[in-house]
């Protein structure tokens, strides 16, 4: 970035500014050279490589930002993620290249927790399934189950898991949790009991995941074999945390009552879960609420501007 030259910023987030124009207006007011995502969707590796060569800053989504991509970004100094997850960023490669990485962890908490709760109730009461059937000419009153008084298992008691536990309180559920780094003081305050993952899977009527992404699934065929057949599974966290093939088999064979999936290993999702009536699917919409998007995008812009200032 030459002295006096306006930095070049790439908006890889295809939905940037859709909820509110204020974040884009903030970029324009800062006098930056702004480039849009020309594909209108999540960028693939070769696409981001083609776009990032002379970019000073990236306002990023979930596109792959691995070592090869970062090596092609000759001028890149800042990655400002719209969202909380950084599993798509090779942080070691970024550090080696001197690239500052920022995210917006707070803004996603409420919208993802709310969407999770709505998905749980939807599954238990067959809301979406009855809607589809009625639109297709079937008057089929399916017998549902109440959330009240059930056991909810939260895998990952971080920001979103904790917020979900507070939203569940009026339903007088028993909340159990499994976490890699348990905070017993927080759990006590929330009325949550930590249990081993094996116990959570065996006892929970509702199992919901709120973990960062990883290199392997947390819920595989082995874990699904341990759950009650009347249980429901929710993943509004990260694609890849649930083995989608094993999930499909468990649902189709009746070893799991229902599932709600908002995040997938490959997106846009085109797999066989779409064929099953006992699955609720949404297109990675956890944080896609207008208020949350505005907060996330404004925070991402301010994070980027502050980081760029350090390089002047």
Please explain how this structure is put together.
The protein has helices spanning 22-29, 45-52, 67-72, 91-96, 109-125, 127-135, 159-168, 184-190, 197-203, 221-224, 244-252, 290-310, and strands spanning 8-11, 33-36, 57-60, 78-81, 100-102, 151-155, 174-178, 193-194, 206-209, 232-235, 258-261, 279-281. It is an alpha/beta fold and 312 residues long. The protein has two domains: 8-104 and 289-310, NAD(P)-binding Rossmann-like Domain (Rossmann fold); 109-281, NAD(P)-binding Rossmann-like Domain (Rossmann fold). The strands form two sheets. The protein has a seven-stranded parallel beta sheet with strand order 8-7-6-9-10-11-12, sandwiched between helices. A five-stranded parallel beta sheet has the order 2-1-3-4-5. The protein is elongated and about 65 Å long. It starts with 7 loop residues before the first strand and ends with a helix. 42% of the residues are buried.
Task: Quote the CATH topology of the largest domain.
Answer: Rossmann fold
Number of separate domains: 2
Number of helical stretches of at least 4 residues: 12
Q: How many strands appear in the DSSP assignment?
A: 12
Shape: elongated
Strand % is 5-15%
């Amino acid at each position: 970035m030459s002295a006096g030259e306006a930095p070049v910023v790439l908006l890889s987030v295809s939905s940037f500014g859709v909820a509110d124009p204020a974040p884009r207006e903030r970029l324009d007011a800062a006098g930056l050279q702004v480039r849009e995502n020309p594909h209108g969707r999540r960028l693939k590796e070769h696409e981001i490589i083609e776009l990032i060569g002379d970019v000073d800053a990236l306002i990023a989504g979930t596109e792959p930002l691995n070592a090869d991509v970062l090596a092609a970004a000759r001028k890149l100094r800042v990655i400002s993620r719209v969202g909380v997850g950084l599993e798509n960023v090779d942080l070691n490669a970024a550090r080696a290249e001197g690239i500052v990485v920022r995210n917006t962890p707070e803004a996603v908490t409420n919208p993802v927790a709310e969407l999770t709760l709505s998905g749980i109730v939807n599954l238990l009461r067959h809301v979406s399934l009855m809607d589809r059937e009625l639109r297709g000419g079937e008057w089929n009153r399916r017998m549902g189950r109440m959330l009240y008084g059930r056991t909810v298992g939260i895998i990952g008691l971080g920001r979103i898991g904790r917020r979900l536990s507070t939203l569940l309180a009026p339903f007088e559920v028993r909340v159990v949790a499994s976490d890699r780094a348990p905070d017993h003081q927080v759990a006590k305050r929330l009325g949550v009991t930590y249990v081993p993952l094996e116990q959570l899977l065996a006892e929970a009527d509702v199992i919901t995941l709120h973990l960062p992404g990883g290199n392997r699934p947390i819920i595989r065929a082995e874990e699904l074999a341990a759950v009650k057949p009347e249980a429901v599974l929710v993943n509004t966290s990260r694609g890849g945390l649930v083995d989608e093939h094993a999930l499909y088999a468990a649902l189709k064979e009746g070893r799991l009552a229902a599932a709600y999936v908002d995040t997938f290993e490959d997106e846009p999702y085109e797999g066989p879960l779409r064929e099953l009536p006992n699955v609720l699917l949404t297109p990675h919409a956890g944080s896609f609420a207008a208020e949350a998007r505005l907060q996330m995008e404004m925070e991402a812009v301010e994070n980027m501007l502050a980081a760029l200032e350090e390089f002047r």
